[in-house]
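TA notes, week 10

Several of you asked for a full example with nothing omitted. So below is the full record: structure tokens for the whole chain, then the designed sequence directly under it. When grading your own attempts, check the secondary structure regions first.
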């Protein structure tokens, strides 16, 4: 009996935790983001529903290729609450990702979202790494029409392994998933993380750390 109580309490606790960890269900039809409001809430304040129009729920231009002329050879075009105010409180958003041949979307994590990605054009190698201590890499090669999921918080990447450009569309389980690009966060923070710390953490010479810090 006592065992049952413990199991039930654990189940109840895990539900409680889920409710805290993810965007709560909306309590109204919509809450279109009011970018002019200075109210500080978890998300953005709601526009007066009387002044809401279809434009608040629309975004155009996702058919346009992103400019991949950069060192990554990729471009992410986001459609999150900043671009589409109607997404406020809804716990969902979208991106288009363009890749030049051999372009990468470098290792990064979304602190607030799981991501489900589908290849529209070309072929991608994708992967994510599980938490410590295993740090197992789960990787696959995707072709047009294939779908892959990156679980919330895990470090992941994509690389174009086809012969031409590649295009993917991904949905994310937050109106504002956030992105932490690992190299930029670690070697490009402002002010920078002390070179001694990074040299020890990465088990490499401080001069290499300095080079990396200069790049990012
Ligand atoms: C793409 O980006 C590069 C580098 O920023 C820039 O030189 C080029 O003009 C851009 N191309 C287009 C079509 O906007
Ligand atoms: C590569 O892409 C990431 C994520 O979009 C961006 O933060 C970073 O600045 C890019 N790096 C370079 C060298 O362009």
């Amino acid at each position: 009996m006592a065992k049952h109580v413990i199991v039930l309490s654990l189940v109840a606790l895990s539900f409680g935790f889920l409710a805290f960890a993810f965007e709560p269900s909306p309590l109204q039809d919509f809450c279109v983001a009011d970018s002019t409001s200075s109210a500080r809430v978890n998300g953005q304040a709601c526009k007066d529903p009387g002044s809401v129009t279809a434009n608040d729920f629309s975004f155009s231009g996702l058919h346009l290729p992103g400019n991949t002329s950069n060192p990554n050879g990729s471009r992410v075009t986001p459609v999150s609450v900043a671009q589409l105010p109607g997404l406020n409180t809804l716990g969902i958003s979208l991106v288009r990702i363009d890749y030049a041949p051999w372009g990468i979307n470098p290792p990064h994590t979304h602190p607030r979202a799981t991501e489900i990605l589908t290849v529209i054009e070309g072929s991608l190698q994708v992967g994510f790494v599980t938490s410590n201590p295993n740090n197992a890499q789960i990787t696959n090669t995707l072709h047009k029409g294939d779908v892959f999921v990156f679980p919330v918080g895990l470090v992941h990447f994509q690389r174009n392994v086809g012969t031409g450009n590649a295009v993917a569309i991904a949905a994310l389980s937050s109106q504002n998933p956030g992105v932490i690009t690992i190299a930029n966060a670690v070697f490009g923070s402002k002010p920078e993380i002390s070179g001694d710390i990074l040299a020890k953490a990465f088990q490499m010479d401080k001069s290499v750390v300095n080079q990396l810090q200069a790049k990012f």
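DSSP finds four helices and ten strands in the chain. Use that as a sanity check on your answer.
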